[in-house]
Amino acid sequence: MLVTLIVLDSVGVGELPDAAAFGDAGAHTINHTLRHTPAGLPHLSGLGLGRIPTVELGAPAAEVQGGYGRMREVSPGKDTSTGHWEFMGVQLEHPFQIFPGGFPPEVMDRFDAATGRGHLCNKPYSGTDVIRDYGEEHLKTGWPIVYTSGDSVFQIAAHEDVVPLEQLYEWCAAARELLQGKYAVARVIARPFRGAFPFERANEHRRDFSLVPPETVLDAVKATGQAVVGIGKIPDIYAHRGFTEEIHTDDNADGIRKTLERMRRAQAEQTSGLIFTNLVDFDAKFGHRRDAEGYSNALSEFDAALPELMAAVPQDGLLIIVSDHGNDPSWRGTDHTREHGLLLAYRPGMTATDLGERETFADIGATVAQALGAEWKGPGESFWTRLK
User: Fold this and answer.
1) Which end of the chain is more exposed for a tag (fewer CB within 10 A), N or C?
2) What is the DSSP letter of 242?
3) What's the CA gap between 189 and 169, in Å, rounded?
4) How far apart are CA 170 and CA 173, in angstroms?
């Protein structure tokens, strides 16, 4: 049995009931993206995208061969770690800490001691703006650019010609050790950049250093002796816990290609287990940059690849497509938006199946566990039997 789980990072499908508390009432990533730059998305539509409540497609498919629904996030947050951890059965009672005023001196003094240098910025900032505004000073001083956002992140930007990648990663590891307990953040992120002003982010060399999660469905599947393959930034999000194999990707196209390769190899070798992929470009390249046209084009590119992905699903296999939060490119600011998660599912021979509104993202992990015969007693209600 092979389950492939693909996260379309930030492709939210409309505000959650508590969106107003996050300043996101009215946000709808997919609708607002497609209003700005229409795209047919025939293959996503064929899995039921147009039948998900509130989703507006120009011409939804008349015939659907898949499961469709949307998911509530019960954890208090709208960031990558919160959403992904809940997918695999970790529901947070309290949000990860954010630092809207920057990090306090007791953190930054210790970070400076670890690097042997000073630092620049230490404010919430857009990733493209921060290297434009501080990049030249960084070239002169060699000091790392430290910034945060509306997410629980400590981000370190450095030019690849000034700070070698391995050194940047060492600084991130040092920051990860510092940012525990009282000052814990979900992720420390290496943000290398290159070139001349206004500079270019080297996203393929990004690396996330996450808090270690408690036990998840990934651990339960791994304990059965089956494969747990993380593709893209997935292993980083779970602090590399629960995986048997990790595969780096450069962008969405590379992530799709490597997912297909791994699915085909698993089928050829009759490998059972989970392939878990994150396609981050929707979020990193287009959502945060409020680029609706780029976002729509990325959706079209995934839609075009979907038939190949579906064809690679074994006869007894399962493909699930989800999203972890929103990032409405029409929205104010540059942060994520608090939205329902997308849910589409496919098995060969399926007919249209309304999976409804799931009460928690953890239903994904419960479904994966049941499909793969792993013991999971944590939160989530499986919809596996609805897919047979």
Assistant:
1) C
2) T
3) 9
4) 5
The answer to whether the CB of 382 falls within 8 A of the CB of 370 is: yes
Residue 365's nearest CA partner among 1, 6, 88 is 88
Q: How confident is the model at residue 191 (pLDDT cuts 50, 70, 90)?
A: very high
Neighbours of 161 (CB within 10 A): 10
CB 51 within 8 A of CB 355: no
Q: Dump pLDDT digits (tens) for 285-336.
A: 999 999 999 999 999 999 999 999 999 999 999 999 999 999 999 999 999 9
In the chain, DSSP assigns E strands to 2-8, 67-71, 120-124, 145-148, 153-159, 187-194, 200-201, 207-210, 227-231, 245-247, 273-279, 318-322, 341-346, 353-358
Q: How far is CA 126 from each of CA 50, 99, 148, 211, 376, rounded to the nearest angstrom?
A: 32, 14, 8, 23, 39
- Say which residues have a Cβ less than 8 Å from residue 148's Cβ, sequence separation at least 6: 98, 99, 100, 102, 103, 123, 124, 125, 154, 155, 185
181 contact partners, CB below 8 Å, separation of at least 6: none
Domains of the chain (ranges; CATH) run 2-94+212-387 (3.40.720.10), 105-210 (3.30.70.1250)
Please calculate the CA angle 370-376-377 and round it to the nearest 5 degrees. Answer: 125
What's the pTM value of the predicted model, to 2 decimals? Answer: 0.94
For 270, the token pair is: 């009759």
Residue with tokens 């996101």: 24
Distance of CA 113 to the CA centre of its chain: 32
